[in-house]
Amino acid sequence: MSVAFVPERLRGAAEVNQETLQRLLEENDQLIRCIVEYQNKGRATDCVQYQHILHRNLIYLATIADATPPRTQKPVD
Fold first, then answer.
1. Region 9-34: what's the mean pLDDT?
2. What's the confidence (pLDDT) of residue 28?
3. Band of pLDDT at residue 6, cut at 50, 70 and 90
4. Do residues 14 and 6 touch, judged by C-beta distance below 8 A?
5. Which end of the chain is more exposed for a tag (fewer CB within 10 A), N or C?
6. How far apart are CA 54 and CA 2, in angstroms?
7. DSSP 7-33
8. Is 57 in contact with 24 (CB distance < 8 Å)?
9. What Pfam families does the database record attribute to this sequence (predicted)?
């Protein structure tokens, strides 16, 4: 199950921290590897479920990025 999947009743209650983001990025890496492996074996229809999870994860990450205030850069001396 994807770490990005949160049941409707818990949405908004999940804490987003560095560890969660790292796990999600690692999961995306694994999903991409599975998708490529299935496609290389000619089993494109078998990778659709992984593509859906990857898509959901990417939308989740994009939503977090959009909601995060921009950082101000420190001036370089």
1. 84
2. 97
3. low
4. yes
5. C
6. 9
7. -GGGTTTPPP-HHHHHHHHHHHHHHHH
8. yes
9. SSXT
In one letter, which amino acid is 5? F
- Name the 3-class secondary structure at 43: coil
How many residues would you count in the chain? 77
Cβ neighbours of 4 (radius 10 Å): 21
CB 28 within 8 A of CB 58: yes
User: What's at 46, amino acid-wise?
Assistant: D
CA–CA gap between residue 48 and residue 54 (Å, rounded): 10
Mean pLDDT of 19-46: 94
Spatial separation of the C-alpha atoms in residues 62 and 19, rounded to whole Å:
17
CA gap 45, 67 in Å, rounded: 34
